[in-house]
Each structure stands twice: as C-alpha cells, then as structure tokens.
C-alpha cells in the first residue's frame, strides 16, 4: 500500500551451519537506493531488490528473498527487511540485484535489470554506523546509482503492538478532490538517522481518514528502546509516485503505550509552512484510537508446550521412475548405496522424528498396481496393513518401502490428491493445536491430477498441516513450483488458500559430482523443513491458539 505492490515471500534465514556453532546473532538489513536508472518510457522505474546468499563453501548463489515493489521511484526506501543470521567466523557473501518490474510475473528474466552490488555481511556490520553505500554496477557504460545498506542487530523482544490511528482536518492537496492520505512510520537509529518501519494504506478522498489497525513487532518500531523517537510523516498519495508532504510529528513507544488519551493527539506540522506563515498552526491532527500489545509466540513455545508433529510419508510408485531392477531407475535398490527416495526420506525423517513422541510414521505409496488383484491404488499402505499404515521409526519406513518395491507393479498416473486428503482427514479430527501434521511426498515429477490436488491443498490450508514435496530425478518441476505458492498463493474454483502450506525442493540441487560426493543432506533437510515453523505458527495464529504453559518438570529422584 502507499504505492507499493507486494511481490514474493520473505527469504527464510539460514540458520547456523555445522555442529557446535554458537547461536548466531540475527541482523536486519534495510535497503535503499539513490538515482537508479530510469527504464520506463512514460513514468519512473518500479524497483524491486532481490537478495542472493551463498552457503558456506559453495560458490552457487541462491535467492534469499525479495523486497516489495515500489512504484514510480528512482530513490526507493524498501519497507521489507531481510533478516539474516550473522556469524562472525564466516564469510557471508551477499549479492543485491535490482530490477524494474513491468508485470506481475515472479520470473526475473521478464523484468529490466537495473544493476547489482556485491558485499559481505561483515562489511555492512563493520562499516561506520553499520551503514554501507556502494555503487551499483553491471550495465556497461552506465551509471546505475547507489545502494545503501543498513544493518541493525535485532533485540530479542517478542512483543507485537497493534495500533490504530485517525486524522482530522488534514490539508487539502488535490486540485479536484480532497487529499488521499497515508502515513509512514520511521524508527530512529543510534546515530540520529531514521529507518522506515511501516506504511499505512491510502484512504481515498478525505481530510478525516480512519486508517485500519495494524500489527507491528515492537522491535521494528523502536528496537526495544521505549524512549527512542518515532517519526511519522503524513502524505497525500499521487498515482505518479510524487506524493505530497502534508506534515509530520514525533512520538515514542512509551507515549503510544499510554493508549487513547489527550497525550496521544498529535499536531501534524509542515516545517516549511511554519517558517513562512506567522499564523500557521498545523496541517491537521492525528489521534491514536487504540493500542494493544501482546507477546508473539514462537514455534518452540508450542513444541515446549507439548504440540506433537505427526509425520506421514507418501512415495511415488509410477512407471516413469524406471524399472526398479535396473541401475538407471530412481527406485533401484543397490547393495552399496541408498537411492534418491531413501536419501530424501532419511534426510527429512531424521530431523522431524525428534518432534514426534511415538515415532510411528504412516507410510503410503501411490501410482502402482497392488496385489492381490492388481488394481491401481493412489494410497496403499507400504506395510500392507490398511487399518494401520504406521511404521516404527524411519528405519521401519525404509524397510516397508523396500518390501513394497518387490510386491507391487509400478504403473500410473501420478495422483497427489488422494494422499493429501488421507492426511487431511486425520488433521481434521485434531484442530486444538495439540497436533500438527506434516506430509512428505517424494515424486519424480509430472503430476496428473493438478485440479484435484489444488482443491485438496486449498481445503487442507484450513487444517493443522503442511506438505513437503521433494522432486527426485531430472524432470521439469514447473507444476510443483506452482503448488509451492511462495510467489502466487494457490487457488481452486475461485477460493484462495488461507495459508501457504506447501514447500517444494528439487533433490538434484543437493547432489553434486559423483555418487555421495558433496551430497548435502543437512542442506536438503534445512531447506525442506525451513517453512514448517512459520506454517505451524500461521495455523495457531489464525485459530487464536496460544501455547499451553510448559508442563512442570517431574521431581528429580535423589541420586
């Protein structure tokens, strides 16, 4: 809002790498640019910044996240931050690419490149005031402008404030109608500069707007310092991006926390008008209508409070995987090494099993002809027991998978909806937050029941469940990327999914060189499980479920 279009999800921070690392400090990066190239004919560029990072020991750049798009601006101050784990002992390479966005497509090749900058996180943190300015390069013979990067260590304050404001008698700025006001909030930094932290929506054609209530982490508003100045600017929105300044006021978290009172009515002052006109009083007033604060709960709060993760595995037994007796098959059972299905299952299962107390995992297959009559099934139990498809531990799942390969005939088509609905039926019976269901689908790719799967996912998004899809083999996984819903939320028959619950990862990204060489199973697990905590939180939050208090420790028996 306020002229900004939202584009893609925030990158998931890389957590510490390798065993025994001290938990890293978290750093929030704010990005601004000045004097960007103008690539649009009739208006200014609409910039977007994309951050890429490298894993330790790798030279491959991976997209970490994107800011929002800001319309019609060559000097953008991006609102969306990047939150990174900062490890003093590691060289953390960063690359910032800027694009002029011309359409809603998430595909960057469809937009105009505006330049790029390279640096390390240590370089930003180590600069004076942790503020680094660099020229943008990458277009020969052109000055691409500069990028300004500001790093601020995040306090561990977990409070979230919800505020609502209205204004009265704001200055009229538009020739034909009244103003279209919006507000921009800035927190002050240690060195007296200001960092943007919130923009309200635009309220059209009024001098007495009432803005919608908004929630903001307290650390974003004042970084945990309740007396730090908060500056608020009021603007009249213009379509061409040249928003008219109405006026400003300053406050602090401590003042706002007093709630609705005469302390929280602010005069909106335009300093230039004040200097020019003797009789000038103000350009209107802004009033705080309500203020509430509550503690944001974390994934670990729920785990500590006893929420169990229930893990179900679904394996693709379609003929496109190749004949399991041939070494070229993705299902080939070699006496010397695990195949891709077993590796992916082990990588994800080994981590998730720590959160499941009974260690019993339902395991299903789909796309095969099953005994005794050879009918095609899209949800058959790997252990052969339809009434209880659960296997003991990850080892039990691997064993049942290998037994099934010898029992069934690979066939087709590749239908996901039955296994999604299978887990959804279980999840629908436990909506109180005590259990959360995770379905791991391992597949070689091309999906046959896209419409039914989308419908199943949209329905499942209301339930306490997440879906992880690991793609094995060399197929094109375009359909899986669409199901992932990071860029465009998935929809079915006009209904949009309530939450993004699907995470897709191609297995081949984690295999390099010969068999077993540079195979990063830890990396695969981290990528696959990265979104689960936020997805669990989004369910709990939507349902208003608070974590139960931590159960008391049993009394220790004396030695």
From TrEMBL:
GO terms for molecular function: calcium-dependent phospholipid binding; metal ion binding. InterPro entries: C2_dom (IPR000008), C2_domain_sf (IPR035892), C2B_Copine (IPR037768), Copine (IPR045052), Copine_C (IPR010734), VWF_A (IPR002035), vWFA_dom_sf (IPR036465). It holds the Pfam family Copine. Residues 6-136, 143-266 form the C2 domain. One of its GO terms (biological process) is cellular response to calcium ion. Gene3D superfamilies: C2 domain. SMART domains: C2, VWA. GO terms for cellular component: plasma membrane. The keyword Repeat applies. PROSITE patterns: C2. Keywords: Calcium, Metal-binding, Phosphoprotein, Repeat. Probable calcium-dependent phospholipid-binding protein that may play a role in calcium-mediated intracellular processes. Belongs to the copine family. This is Copine-8. It comes from Myiagra hebetior.
């Amino acid at each position: 809002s306020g002229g900004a279009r939202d584009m893609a999800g925030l990158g998931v921070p890389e957590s510490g790498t390798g065993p025994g690392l001290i938990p890293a400090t978290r750093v929030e990066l704010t990005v601004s640019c000045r004097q960007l190239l103008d690539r649009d004919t009739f208006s200014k560029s609409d910039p977007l910044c994309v951050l890429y990072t490298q894993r330790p020991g790798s030279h491959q750049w991976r997209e970490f996240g994107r800011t929002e798009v800001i319309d019609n601006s060559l000097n953008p101050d991006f609102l969306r931050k990047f939150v990174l784990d900062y490890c003093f002992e590691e060289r953390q390479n960063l690359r910032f690419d800027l694009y002029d966005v011309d359409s809603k497509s998430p595909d960057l090749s469809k937009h105009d490149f505006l330049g790029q900058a390279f640096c390390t996180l240590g370089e930003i943190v180590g600069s004076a005031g942790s503020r680094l300015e660099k020229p943008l390069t990458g277009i020969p013979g052109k000055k691409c402008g500069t990028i300004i990067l500001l790093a601020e260590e995040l306090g561990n304050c977990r409070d979230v404030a919800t505020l609502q404001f209205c204004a009265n008698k704001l200055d009229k700025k538009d020739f034909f109608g009244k103003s279209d006001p919006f507000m921009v909030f800035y927190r002050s930094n240690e060195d007296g500069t200001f960092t943007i932290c919130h923009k309200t929506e635009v309220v059209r054609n009024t001098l007495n707007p009432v803005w919608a209530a908004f929630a903001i982490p307290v650390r974003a508003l004042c970084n945990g310092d309740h007396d730090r100045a908060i500056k608020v600017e009021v603007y009249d929105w213009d379509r061409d991006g040249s928003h008219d300044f109405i006026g400003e006021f300053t406050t602090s978290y401590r003042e706002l926390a007093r709630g609705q009172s005469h302390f929280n009515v602010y005069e909106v002052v335009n300093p230039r008008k004040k200097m020019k006109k003797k009789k000038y009083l103000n350009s209107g007033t802004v009033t705080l209508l309500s203020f509430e604060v509550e503690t944001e709960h974390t994934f670990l709060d729920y785990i500590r409070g006893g929420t169990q993760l229930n893990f179900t595995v679904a394996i693709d037994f379609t003929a496109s995987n190749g004949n399991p007796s041939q070494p070229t098959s993705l299902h080939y059972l070699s006496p010397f090494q695990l195949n891709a299905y077993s590796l992916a299952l082990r990588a994800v299962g080994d981590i998730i099993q720590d959160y499941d107390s009974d260690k019993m995992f339902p395991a299903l297959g789909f796309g095969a002809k099953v005994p005794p009559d050879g009918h095609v099934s899209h949800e058959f139990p790997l252990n052969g027991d339809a009434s209880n498809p659960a296997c003991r531990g990850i080892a039990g799942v691997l064993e049942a998978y290998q037994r099934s390969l010898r029992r069934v005939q690979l066939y087709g088509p590749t239908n996901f909806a039955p296994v999604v609905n299978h887990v959804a039926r279980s999840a629908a019976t436990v909506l109180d937050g005590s259990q959360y269901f995770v379905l791991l689908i391992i597949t070689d790719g091309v999906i046959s029941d896209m419409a039914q799967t989308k419908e199943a996912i949209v329905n499942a998004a209301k339930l306490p469940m997440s879906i992880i899809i690991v793609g094995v083999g060399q197929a094109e996984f375009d359909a899986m990327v669409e199901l992932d819903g990071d860029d465009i939320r998935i929809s079915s028959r006009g209904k949009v999914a309530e939450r993004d619950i699907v995470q897709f990862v191609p297995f081949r990204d984690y295999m390099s060189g010969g068999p077993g060489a540079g195979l990063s199973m830890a990396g695969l697990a981290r990528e696959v499980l990265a979104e689960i905590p936020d997805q669990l939180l989004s369910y709990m939050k939507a349902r208003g479920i608070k974590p139960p208090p931590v159960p008391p420790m049993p009394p220790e028996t004396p030695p």
